[in-house]
Amino acid sequence: MTTLDYSDVPLGPNEIRLVSLEISAEDVAQAKWKIRVANLADESTSYYAVSYRWGAPLLEGRFKTMTNEPVSPVQFNNSVVKVTENLYDFLDQVKSDEQLKEKEFWIDAICINQSDPKERSHQVSTMMARIYRSATCVIAWLGDADLHTERAFDHLSKLAESTTLPPPVGTKRSSTNQSDSVDFDSYQSSWKSTAKLFERTYWNRSWIIQELVLPDKVTVRCGKYSADWSVLSKASHNISTSTWREFFFNEATGIGSLGSDAKTARIPQRNYGIPTILKATKASMATEHWTNVLLYTLIRSRDFEATNWEDKVYALMGLIEDSVDIGKTPLLRPEFGEDSSAAQTYLKTAIQLLRDCEELLILSCVEGRSFQKVKINGDTLPSWVPDWSEHARLGLGVTGYKRYSADACFVPPGTHLLREEKLARWPAVVNEESLTVSIGGLKVDEISFRAEPKRDIQKGEPFPRLLSMLLSLPTRYQTTEEDLWEAFWRTLIVNTGSENLQEGDTVWVVPRSRWVVRMFMDSWTVERF
User: Fold this and answer.
1) Residue 116's closest CA among 210, 2, 1, 4?
2) Where is each Heterokaryon incompatibility domain found (predicted)?
């Protein structure tokens, strides 16, 4: 077994390597693949970039034994090189597909010399975003197909075409113009297959954010089945904004009647909304300052995964590299090899965002020290630096909320402050030597009581302080003298309704409020048992 000699295909400025099928064969191992150099500055350069996971695409069946290690032999430029099993499966599909076999591909594991830290650093930090942005098409490879795949793609296509989704049997219609209710049994297997597609490990990668947001065209492929990215995006949106969302949570993912493992079933609950999250990210790139794009995406992708913890930040840098004033951000530059450090990356990110953001939203992302994994000089990170390696979402995870401003009372009505004026008004002064932050502000109130952290409750730990607080609540909300239920439902909608809770409204509000509590308790029970 030989290694690929990259000296035969050296890279110059703006250049990348592309791989294509040269001589086909029945077995991928016997087929011959060609690698050549192409220049991104050349308008005639056309290629498909592949977005995929190195390891197992699904943690069950034949996929369960797959690893990140290259074990499958393939011939490239007269050299036999081992690739991962998941990539081997993709090459097998290319060989078998009449359209794909004529294309050239950019695949990181092959087209970047992974044993050369300097080349890898340059390609990832300087070229990666451009590679995906310039691709004719990006293929989101979910792995080889299984018995659920065909049904899942068919169902997603139907969901994408539906402007008004009928609710399942036993639920109320979400609007008066919806069609008649459909039989749950006829859709049960389709929804289960859809959940299985979103259970694939591809959706957990931090790198897919830029890989799917930057290109103009994306095709999602699982084995021989494929769909345009717009299909998944529309289907995700329709699930999120219809009565199917609750159904998907309780039935299709297996927590309800389908009887799947509860913890595994929560994976597609998270993943089905990823296309919608990426759509919001792309929209924010067109309207928001780069600091907001970076911070909002860090918040939205908190529970994504990266082999190297610093990649939780580096994987997003391609989203902001073309910003007008990005030259003012010398702290945020990807580093690899010995210079790479998650602690330093998170520290630099926090400093840059505190200096350049118009708000202090980043401070709401800081977890308790007991949850931190990353150390700096043997100690936990400073109390103002989020540890992005921690997957647990904190608080509401709200991004882009503009309706409330804590310092609005200090600005005359109708006054529009420039971004520089806002930064100067309440500056965050960072002392990089002592690792402290000084921020001006006004004392509004004092915290008189605290319950257990949400993470402890989700892990199944006892929560006597929270129960004590709930049991001690008065029947009326002390600040406004409202009924406690009214104060509760107003809290759920951030007090955006002007009407009082009418007697007829309790038919909807009270059960819905209790549903929120029940969902919380179900989550607690599942995590514990």
Assistant:
1) 4
2) 47-211
